Amino acid sequence: MTQLSGPLSGIRILEVGVMLAGPYATMLLADLGAEVIKIEPPGGEISRQVSDSYFASLNRNKQSVVLDLRSDEGRRRLGELVADSHALLVNMKPSAIKRLGLTYDALRQFNDRIVCVALTGFGLNGGDDPAFDYVIQAATGVAAMTGHPDDPPTLPGYSSADNSTGLTAALGLLAQIVSGRGGQVDVSLRDVMFSQLNYRASAYLNDGAEPQRYPFGAHSYYVPAQLFATADGYLALFITHDSFWKSFATEAGIEGFETMAERVAHRDAVLTAVAAALATDTAKGWEARLRPLGIPAAAVQTLPEALETTPEVVVTAGDFRLVGSPIRIDGYDPDYRPPPRLDEHADAPSAQSS
């Protein structure tokens, strides 16, 4: 079978990215074949100082060019790159984006079809208030609805706001390229997190229903849908359909509660019965019993355990082992290259204007 080129082959994207959200967005596009030129300040992008593995996890398959965008020469070189590129993605404070001339209004003189994506905390015109991932989770209600009801608010164990915003920014960038028009795309961490609270926000806006925290992360609509303690370990069980319940109840030896309405109305009784049944076997045991029945269930694993049992998601990029692209396309396998050395491609032909 002939190896296809990446679906974004021929697309050039410039990145002025910092830490996670912006670099993650452009890395996903690079994995799909786009040429991504990472424009770094003298001394390098700050995440190079975190660790080599951190930087690699967000910057594989890119080129690196150092430009001092505060200087006339740096701005001149930026203009040359913009003239021969499809898009620029930047995540910095709005004031810095505007001061450095990284907006469509400032760059259209070089290329009126350039797509400029500003990835910020509160919008390009939303001010410079600090907007790190955890701050956004606190400000949008995510932290308040996470955790045990009797415990303090808590945060997920990974950067959910940054990663989600990176994905959204990549989508907005591609949508504007497909339109054939240049222009400004504005994506903020705050707006993305509100968008991802979809049914939670809708329930409050339309029905006045405030989010409630339930033990073990239980779902507000589906019962049973949460974590359960077993004889050894915890099991995630997610029963959304009555057919799932029928199969589970038969395997677990539970009678009654045949409809979703009944299970919701008798939440405590259902959870008591399910907890008692699941305590008779281990999490791995229940997973092995329920999976063949088509019932959504999984034993809780640590990240090392999950990676060891899912080797197909791990790829090699130079000396680094990383999680590969989540987008699988028939006939195309990304060529995973290591992250660039600082200014590695300053003299490469592809980093010069045509």
Model description:
It is a single chain. With 354 residues, the chain is α/β, with parallel strands linked by helices. The chain folds into 2 domains: 198 residues, 3-Layer(aba) Sandwich (Rossmann fold), CATH 3.40.50.10540; 66 residues, no CATH class. The strands form 3 sheets. The chain has a 6-stranded parallel β-sheet with strand order 3-2-1-4-5-6. Strands 7-8-9 form a 3-stranded antiparallel β-sheet, with helices on one face. A hairpin with a 2-residue loop joins strand 10 and strand 11. Helix 1 crosses helix 7. The model has no long low-confidence stretch (mean pLDDT 95).
Major sheet attributes: 6 strands, parallel
Secondary structure: number of strands: 11
Q: What's the level 1 CATH class of the largest domain?
A: Alpha Beta
Give the topology string: H per helix, E per strand: EHEHEHEHHEHHEHHEEHHHHEHEE
Share of helical residues: 25-40%
Low-confidence stretches: none
CA distance, first residue to last residue? 34 Å
Number of domains: 2
CATH evolutionary superfamily of the largest domain: Crotonobetainyl-coa:carnitine coa-transferase, domain 1
* Alpha plus pi helix count: 14
Mean pLDDT: 95
Shape: elongated
CATH-derived architecture of the largest domain: 3-Layer(aba) Sandwich
| Order of neighbouring strands in the sheet with most strands | 3-2-1-4-5-6
Q: Radius of gyration, Cα only, in angstroms?
A: 24 Å
- Kindly name the structural category: alpha/beta
Query: What percent strand?
Result: 5-15%
Could you tell me the CATH topology label of the largest domain.
Rossmann fold
